Amino acid sequence: MSVPLALLGLLEREPSHGYDLKRDYDTYFGRGRTLPFGQVYSTLARLARDGKVTAGQSEPGDGPDRKRYVITPVGTSEVASWLAEPVAAEPYLQTVLFTKVVLALMLDRDAAGYLDTQRATHLRRMRELSEVKRGGALVDTLLADHALFHLEADLRWIDVTQARLGALAETVRER
User: Where is the Transcription regulator PadR N-terminal domain (predicted)?
Assistant: First the structure.
């Protein structure tokens, strides 16, 4: 996730204070990983330095004085370009799962046991995500669906790899 671009997008929607940006970021994008206040303000400072946002005068608030940030045309152009670019198609050809299986085989360790443990971990996470879907808002449901589809693909890969462990073991031990 590109925090600077997400913040720029939120600012394009409407000028905001740092506190409001953090709240909106956490609401829509921070599931399980909220954005620290320090990161919000350091990112806003870099965006201002780069001419992508401007900071208004300090305004009194309930706490310390607050600045309202406004996106500039340069920032708007960057958001438009970013939104127009497709996300890189995943998965990449080298994954941690694959690396662990190959190394386990090379080191004469229990690759099948590792795959069983990984399957159990995936299934546990899938149950958690299914629970999120049952009681979640639309944003949570869509994010859970995305994660579930990726986990399902991993499970299919785990099954195929487990079925081919003998052949893979021969391949990696030949070298």
Answer: 7-80
